[in-house]
Design goal:
6-stranded mixed sheet, globular, 11 strands, alpha/beta, D-Maltodextrin-Binding Protein, domain 2
Length: 372
């Protein structure tokens, strides 16, 4: 599928380029200094050094080159050569990838989920077929942290959520909220703070960084009910197909090597920031409450029901006739990654990178991968 060219954006981008045809554009709609911006800068630095400067990227954060919902057509048409795509914003264009987002609800390990998503996007035939239709080449994946319930009151029991207004961001979260007697509320992320502050919102399902880096909720929250409510692994980083095709096998390997190490570093850093977020919240007087047995059992029962109904829900919602092979692949791969990560020091960049190289990036055939 070919997308219409973003002529105006392309003209602006081209005007800012140096004369060298080997300087390319990497974009994220997330802000400067965000994990995505940091990741792209890491990749660019590694590639520049490994290629002796023959491949370089200029980074465009904050949507200054491509907006969130325009990244797919902009990347496919060559406005940028590398960018992160949030598939949840374009479900009709990436329905198969959004099944991974649905499945993220049952994940309780951020790093294992990120690496599962990465492996599947490289090698699962359903996901690869979807990307092939989009004039893109998958580069790597990531995910934000595991969600829990951040509340403006003291919540330490699953029964505390009956009748409570809870901000959700996925269909699975909506279903779970309703299952525990809560009332789902849809508000943009920046409005969570004032919602909890004014008591028009009781809780938000969010990652630990909602407490600090993203929305500063530690200033208004009273407690975090630490029931692991999955995450939202969808999309990832992608190359423009022409850019990838024009690279030599040696250059593709340089890119993959950089992506592997940057992926490892990004997820290690995110885990560290998660710990810092919890420490900051505790210092601010926010109670960090572990779920009781009833809460854990309620979640397990709902997750089982959710997985059983997902093939039919996917057929109705996403138009995918048989998602069961992808669901089974996800489940097996996620368990595999939890086991692999239990055998290494998750804070050791070299060890995690070596694991990614062995299990994913080293298996990518640079002579054939992503080529038409």
């Amino acid at each position: 599928m070919k997308f219409a060219s973003f002529a105006a954006a392309a003209a602006i981008a081209a005007a800012g380029l140096p004369a060298s045809a080997e300087t390319f554009r990497a974009a994220t709609w997330n802000a400067a200094g965000s994990p995505n911006d940091t990741f792209l800068t890491d990749v660019a630095t590694q590639v520049r050094e490994a290629s002796g400067g023959s491949i370089d990227f200029e980074i465009f954060p904050g949507g200054m080159l491509l907006p969130a919902d325009g990244t797919l057509p902009g990347l496919a048409s060559g406005v940028a050569q590398l960018a992160n795509i949030t598939a949840a914003y374009i479900p009709s264009d990436m329905p198969v990838n959004n099944v991974i987002a649905d499945l993220s609800f049952v994940a309780d390990d951020q790093m294992a989920l990120a690496f599962t998503s990465t492996e599947l996007n490289f090698f699962d035939p359903m996901l690869q077929a979807e990307v092939d239709e989009l004039d893109l080449v998958f580069a790597t994946g990531f995910t934000i942290g595991i969600y829990s319930l951040i509340c403006g009151f003291e919540a330490d029991s699953i029964d505390d959520f009956q009748g409570r207004k809870i901000r959700t961001s996925s269909s699975a979260q909506v279903g779970f909220t309703e299952a525990v007697g809560g009332v789902t509320v849809a508000v943009p992320g920046p409005e969570i703070y004032t919602g909890i502050q004014r008591k028009s919102l009781d809780c938000a399902m969010g990652t630990p960084l909602f407490l600090t880096d993203f929305f500063k909720l530690s200033e208004v929250a009273k407690s975090v009910y630490l029931l692991p409510l999955g995450s939202n692994a969808n999309g990832g980083y992608y190359f423009n197909r022409d850019f990838w095709t024009d690279r030599s096998p040696e250059e593709r390997r340089i890119l993959l090597n950089a992506l592997s190490r940057a992926t490892a570093r990004s997820m290690i850093d995110w885990a560290g920031n998660t710990e810092k977020a919890f420490e900051a919240a505790a210092a601010a007087g926010v109670a960090l409450n572990q779920p009781e047995a009833a809460g854990t059992e309620t979640l397990a029962a709902y997750a089982e029901q959710f997985l059983e109904g997902l093939p039919e829900a996917t057929r109705e919602k996403r138009g995918i006739e048989d998602a069961q092979p992808l669901i089974d692949n996800f489940t097996a791969t996620f368990e595999k990654w939890k086991g692999l990560l239990a055998e290494v020091d998750r804070t050791d960049l070299d060890a995690v990178t070596a694991l990614l190289d062995r299990e994913i990036f080293g298996k990518v055939d640079v002579e054939t991968y992503g080529l038409e």
